[in-house]
Design a protein that fits this description.
The protein contains 15 helices and 22 strands. By secondary structure, the protein is α+β, with helices and mostly antiparallel strands. The strands form six sheets. The chain has a six-stranded mixed beta sheet. Helix 6 packs antiparallel against helix 9 and helix 12 packs antiparallel against helix 13. The protein is globular and about 70 Å long. The relative contact order is 0.17.
Amino acid sequence: MHSKKILASLVCGLLISAGGAMAEDIKQGGTLTVPIINTGFVENFNPYTSGDLTHGVIFEPLMVFNAMTGKTEWRLAESADYSDDLKTITLKIRDGLKWSDGQPLTSKDVAFSYELSKEAAAFDLKGIWPAGNLKSIKTPDATTIVFELNTPDSTLLWDLAAYHIVPEHIWGKEKNLTTFMNVNPVGSGPMTTVKYVKSQQMQLCRNDNYYLPNRPYIDCITYRSYNDNSQIQPALMKGEIDWGSNFIADIENTYVKADPANNHFWYPANDAIHLYVNTKEAPFDDLNVRKALSMALNRADIVDIAAFGYPTVNYNAGGIAELYKPYISKEMTAKYKDLTQYDPKKSNQLLDQGGYKDLDGDGFRDMPNGEPIEFDIEVVNGWTDWIQVVQMVTEYYEEIGIKANVKTVDWAVYDKNLKNSGYKMSINWSMVATNPIQAYQEYFLTDRAGQSFHGGHGVHSPEIDQLINSFGLTKDPMKQQAILDELQEFTAANLPFIPLFSNPTWYQYNTSKFVGWPSEENPYVRPVWYDGGTRNLILNNLHLK
């Protein structure tokens, strides 16, 4: 069987700094400071259980699919081939790779890293094992990994990039990987030396065995813990933080104006933000209620008032938004446009027709059986912009006689409830990926329910599973787009989540010490801090001014 090369060889664009300087002229050193919203740091460097602050830092990706440029940025891997029948992926990693402790990093480590996600189901980030299509992983030599599939799947490679490659000689000795804290981490990324861990601050420093010559240019990265966005804003203004990734109110006046020469921001469109609805509970099991709740919202005002105009309003009920603009079906958007228009009159009509009326005279609607309708909308503590959004949503719902409450929760509660359908309504993002089919996989594949943030709404079926899985049976762009069109139609017709807006990529950066940042003028990557691949590319590009 002839092999077909589907991905190009090493991308060399990162061999030159974003600032334009040649590598030999770049000044090395310095400590980068970034803010993290959490309750403090602990000595846990397991990338699967530590909130993923280590992917792209301690643990190098195999590859990064750069959504901003459309390129594949090769990291530990240097190429990937699909067979003609799309049932075999042959992955090649670089020769001579080393772990930070000097031990060789080989194909055995890569295979082990995927196999462990079979044993520890919580580590199976993309559900490659429950789906049943991955038949075997073989390592014919030290730099080759062969993934054999039961059926053709042209999308599996995109999922493989999300997994953490860990050292078998360390992790293979652990009996319970889900409780393994990895206190003395051995990794392959640019920063693997733990200099210190304090409750409110943590510092990681350079890996002397990093595979890229002279990289990283910076010496260390310091994480600082903050309770919420409001604490980060003054720290940014004072120049205490180099790289921000948070909502900052009125940023032009509160941040840029303080130091126009060095304080900058760039907010390219990112993921679609939805109100996820638990359709397994009344009254959300009634499609007309979901429609009424969608039409009760003035999205433009929510964006302008609660989010300072930074997001982009999403009037597409098909599950995707600005990030995937080329894939959006114009016909479907037009067909279901009424669902996303502000129409409280129609909302009230739908609720009245369903028998949801104020039966006890308290000003709020009740179920037809007399039970009150009241629910919480969950949002994470400290996410001040989304808290403001949810507050506005509850006010719009009150106007149509629906009582909803803002419920702020800790991250752990939010995470658990989204995965386990423990919410009635929750504001959450959607998948940022190489192709929107990956977003639909997270939304609707039955085997992702209980694993994914995005699949707890309860709308699943064997027919939709089959449709989604058929995408990987072809590489024909027209056939794939037809599948995406059908999935958009299904999403709009069932409305398992209520679209709000396309989130901006929150990104602030200070150039007083470091340069090489992505920017509107030099958009070499979408600047998402909380994505390990993006984080890795930027860390490898920054250097002292």
